[in-house]
């Protein structure tokens, strides 16, 4: 019975992180280490005050930030556990930055890419992700139960389970870093979770923050059997910049050519609040996410030190849907 409840809790965590959601590769960072660095308290991320935060994963201030190392676990006995992930946090008078590091054998940068074989296209590929879930409103149960507090509809059919809030005035803030759709333009997706807006759609509680422009758009033709566009000049591009797309010309393609699956541009507006810097090297991801303590948008959590903030965490390795592993306990952000 306990194992069954545990599996249900894990699947509930996963449901909130379901998938919606070329740059030169940066120089790889080494681990943030230092003589004064210390492990964090159990399940607690301690944010330290610095003069000015940045997206630099190698900035000196990380050496003074305690490291919390948490496991990520599979959804059932039949599924393997995921990597351990280390978490650090810093803040200044205006911003917070969080640093995540975890093992991953390969960077997945070509979600839904199209491969040309000389006659037809085949679509393949997914992406790596890290997701954080924060209560926006006063939800005391989350601090003790974590994401299980948001689980609804305990039905024998798992396809009917959903995660969200009971009423539209209660919401969660979802940070959703995606290695293809947001990483390549220096952002993490900013989303929010609320009530079951459409009873026929278990994903309807999850919505994207408001935006004025930008974001990601599928590169797919009307028939659904190939891309609509190609990069205007770079056959090795990882994405097509929105506004620079060229009409597809298969006569110009060699067999084996890979066309990116998305048109991308940085999101402008609330959905673009999360700046991000991700680097994959030597079998690991290092990702830094930064945003204002108060974005000024009501679909985001407001950070007010020294208030304590519980959150949930999930990691994806080249997947989507239920392909996640999750931190098994509620995590807590505190301030020093």
Task: Describe this structure as you would to a colleague.
- The protein has a single domain (2-335), classed as Immunoglobulin-like.
- The protein is 6% helix and 35% strand.
- It is built from 2 helices and 23 strands.
- Strands 1, 2, 3, 4, 7, 10, 11, 12, 19, 20, 21, 22 and 23 form a 13-stranded mixed β-sheet that branches.
- The chain is globular.
The total beta strand count reads 23
Q: What is the CATH topology?
A: Immunoglobulin-like
Total helical elements: 2
Q: What's the number of domains?
A: 1
Helix content: under 10%
- Specify the biggest β-sheet: 13 strands, mixed
Class by alpha and beta content: mainly beta
Mean pLDDT: 84
pLDDT < 50 stretches? 1-31
CATH class: Mainly Beta
Shape: globular
Distance between the termini: 40 Å
Under the CATH scheme, the architecture is Sandwich
Key terms:
disordered N terminus; globular; mainly beta; Immunoglobulin-like; 2 helices; 336 residues; single chain; 6% helix
What is the fold's blueprint, element by element?
Layout: H1 2-15, E1 44-49, E2 68-70, E3 85-91, E4 95-103, E5 113-116, E6 121-124, E7 127-135, H2 140-145, E8 151-152, E9 162-163, E10 172-178, E11 189-193, E12 206-208, E13 213-218, E14 229-230, E15 240-241, E16 246-247, E17 258-259, E18 262-268, E19 275-281, E20 284-292, E21 309-319, E22 325-326, E23 331-335
Parallel strand pairs: 1-3, 1-23, 15-18
Antiparallel strand pairs: 2-3, 3-4, 4-20, 5-6, 5-17, 7-10, 7-21, 8-9, 10-11, 11-12, 13-18, 14-16, 19-20, 21-22, 21-23
């Amino acid at each position: 019975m306990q194992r069954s409840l545990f599996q249900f809790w894990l699947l509930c965590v996963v449901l909130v992180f379901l998938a919606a959601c070329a740059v030169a590769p940066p120089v790889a960072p080494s681990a943030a280490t230092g003589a004064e660095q210390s492990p964090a308290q159990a399940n607690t991320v301690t944010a330290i005050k610095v003069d000015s935060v940045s997206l630099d994963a190698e900035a000196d201030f990380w050496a003074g930030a305690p490291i919390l190392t948490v496991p990520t676990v599979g959804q059932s006995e039949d599924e393997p556990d995921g990597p351990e992930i280390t978490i650090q946090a810093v803040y200044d008078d205006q911003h917070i930055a969080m640093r995540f590091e975890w093992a991953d054998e390969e960077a997945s940068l070509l979600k839904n890419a199209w491969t040309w074989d000389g006659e037809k296209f085949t679509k393949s590929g997914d992406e790596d992700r890290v997701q954080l879930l924060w209560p926006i409103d006063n939800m005391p149960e989350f601090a003790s139960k974590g994401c299980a507090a948001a689980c609804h509809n305990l039905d024998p059919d798992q396809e009917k389970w959903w995660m969200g809030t009971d009423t539209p005035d209660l919401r969660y803030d979802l940070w959703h870093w995606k290695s293809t759709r947001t990483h390549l333009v220096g952002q993490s997706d900013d989303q929010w979770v609320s009530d079951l807006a459409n009873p026929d759609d278990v994903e309807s509680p999850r919505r994207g923050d408001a935006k004025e422009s930008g974001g990601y758009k599928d590169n797919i033709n009307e028939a659904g059997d190939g891309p609509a566009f190609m990069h205007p000049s770079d056959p090795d591009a990882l994405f097509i910049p929105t506004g620079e797309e060229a009409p597809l010309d298969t006569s110009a393609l060699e067999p084996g050519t890979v066309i990116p699956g998305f048109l991308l541009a940085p999101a402008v507006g609330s959905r673009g609040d999360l700046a991000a810097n991700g680097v994959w090297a030597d079998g690991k991801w290092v990702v830094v996410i930064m945003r204002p303590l108060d974005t000024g948008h009501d679909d985001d959590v407001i950070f007010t030190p020294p208030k304590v903030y519980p959150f949930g965490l999930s990691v994806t390795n080249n997947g989507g849907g239920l392909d996640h592993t999750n931190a098994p306990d509620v995590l807590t952000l505190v301030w020093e």
